[in-house]
């Protein structure tokens, strides 16, 4: 049967529907080859505390494929290059303990790390690969903003959730003659806003790639009234910004200073529409609803393909690569070609052009 590999797998960053399906696929595909798979819980915590390592077997992963979240847990604060350590006086310092992770990985007899994550998690995996941990990355983000792959798992589910919410808002907006402003995730890319806004029959879609003029947004909503439609739906990506303005961020109260923590753009847009056009408005932030719940059929299948391909690439001897869906095939691309880059919505894409043809405004 060739080499018998001992695989470690972890998840990092925000959760996404489909994570469990990837874990399932990696486990089942590896088991079919006679390999072992061990899950590292809470990012890299299991390499500091081996009680957080769990062996994954077909029995252990049975029935998890349709569940949201991740059976391994995940974290946004699992950077081993900057690990918080509490001093005797109660203060916290950050230490580079990456060497400890590398030593633990090899001491435990692992051959390859399958790292499930977005850009930040893949950057960590790449840095660890440079220190001697062989890595195969699997792209995970509902934002769909990783380059080299046509789509990431979790995106379709997030769009479906957002579209369902927009559908429901049409009825309440119509009942009260209101303008509803819906904020969706996506960080610096407008994929979720574009797809859910188009599918949800929005009047206006605001995305980071096209800075908007709030007066043009108001003008588009005024057209609705001329046509006898007394309500409006505006879908705005969390990273959208007005022309000449900056990102809307929140204050991180834990540190008492403003960080690039996106959120609040929907409230600002709703306030400006009310102030400038006199329209009754309400804002709604979908937030983590977009991350939760069972993955759609499309995301389940895509997740299974990503996981199975990761195991195939390990068998082929590929290392320090990311699995990328380049239809119709799954391909291995060097992780270094992916990290630090953002896949933005092409402003001349067919989907954008379709929206314009349908009368949807981008406020530009």
Q: What descriptors fit this protein?
A:
single chain; 364 residues; alpha/beta; Rossmann fold; seven-stranded mixed sheet; four-stranded parallel sheet; 15 strands; 21% strand; elongated
Overall pLDDT confidence: 92
User: Which CATH-level-2 architecture of the largest domain?
Assistant: 3-Layer(aba) Sandwich
Highest-level CATH class of the largest domain: Alpha Beta
User: Gap between N and C termini, in Å?
Assistant: 59 Å
Q: How is the biggest beta sheet arranged?
A: 7 strands, mixed
Topology as H/E string?
EHEEHEEHEHEHEHEHEEEHEHEEH
Work out the number of β strands.
Answer: 15
> How many individual domains?
2
Give the count of helical stretches: 10
Helical residue percent band: 25-40%
Shape category: elongated
Question: Would you summarize the structure shown here?
Answer:
By secondary structure, the protein is α/β, with parallel strands linked by helices.
Could you please describe the fold and organization of this structure?
This protein is of the alpha/beta class and 364 residues long. The protein has two domains: 6-153 and 295-327, Rossmann fold; 156-292 and 346-357, Rossmann fold. 34% of the residues lie in helices and 21% in strands. It has helices at 19-32, 58-61, 98-107, 119-129, 155-176, 191-199, 214-226, 265-277, 297-315, 350-357; strands spanning 6-11, 36-40, 53-56, 83-86, 92-95, 112-117, 135-139, 179-184, 204-206, 232-237, 249-252, 257-262, 281-285, 321-326, 329-334. A seven-stranded mixed sheet has the order 3-2-1-6-7-14-15, with helices on both faces. It has a four-stranded parallel sheet with strand order 9-10-8-13, sandwiched between helices. The chain has a two-stranded antiparallel sheet with strand order 4-5. Strand 1 (6-11), helix 1 and strand 2 (36-40) form a beta-alpha-beta unit. Helix 5 crosses helix 6 (191-199) and helix 7 packs across helix 8. It is elongated. The chain starts with 5 loop residues before the first strand and ends in a 7-residue tail after the last helix. The model has no long low-confidence stretch (mean pLDDT 92).
């Amino acid at each position: 049967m060739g080499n018998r590999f001992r695989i470690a797998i972890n998840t990092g960053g925000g959760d996404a529907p489909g994570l469990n399906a990837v874990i399932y696929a990696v486990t089942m595909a590896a088991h079919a080859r006679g390999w072992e798979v061990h899950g590292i819980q809470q990012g890299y915590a299991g390499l500091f505390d081996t009680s957080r390592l769990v062996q994954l077997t077909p029995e252990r992963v049975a029935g998890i494929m349709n569940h949201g979240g991740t059976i391994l847990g995940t974290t946004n604060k699992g950077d081993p290059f900057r690990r918080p350590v509490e001093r005797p006086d109660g203060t916290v310092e950050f230490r580079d303990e990456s060497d400890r992770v590398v030593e633990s990985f090899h001491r435990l007899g692992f051959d390859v790390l399958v790292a499930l994550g977005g850009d930040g998690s893949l950057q960590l995996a790449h840095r660890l690969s440079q220190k001697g941990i062989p890595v195969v990355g699997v792209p995970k983000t509902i934002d769909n903003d990783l380059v080299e792959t046509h789509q990431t798992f979790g995106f379709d589910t997030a769009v479906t959730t957002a579209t369902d919410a927009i559908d429901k808002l049409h009825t309440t907006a119509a009942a009260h003659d209101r303008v509803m402003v819906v904020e969706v995730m996506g960080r610096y890319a407008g994929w979720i806003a574009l797809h859910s806004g188009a599918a949800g029959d929005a009047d206006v879609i605001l995305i980071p790639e096209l800075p908007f003029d709030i007066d043009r947004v108001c003008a588009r909503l005024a057209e609705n009234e001329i046509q006898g439609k007394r309500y409006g739906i505006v879908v705005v990506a969390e990273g959208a910004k007005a022309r000449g303005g900056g990102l809307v961020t929140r204050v991180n109260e834990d540190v008492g200073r403003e960080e690039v923590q996106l959120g609040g753009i929907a409230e600002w847009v709703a306030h400006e529409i009310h102030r400038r056009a006199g329209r009754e408005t309400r804002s709604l932030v979908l937030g983590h609803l977009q991350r939760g719940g069972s993955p759609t059929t499309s995301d389940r299948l895509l997740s299974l393909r990503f996981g199975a391909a990761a195991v195939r690439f390990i068998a082929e001897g590929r290392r320090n690569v990311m699995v990328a869906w380049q239809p119709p095939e799954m391909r291995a691309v060097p992780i270094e070609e992916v990290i630090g880059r953002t896949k933005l919505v092409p402003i001349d894409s067919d989907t954008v052009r379709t929206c314009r043809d349908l009368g949807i405004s981008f406020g530009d």
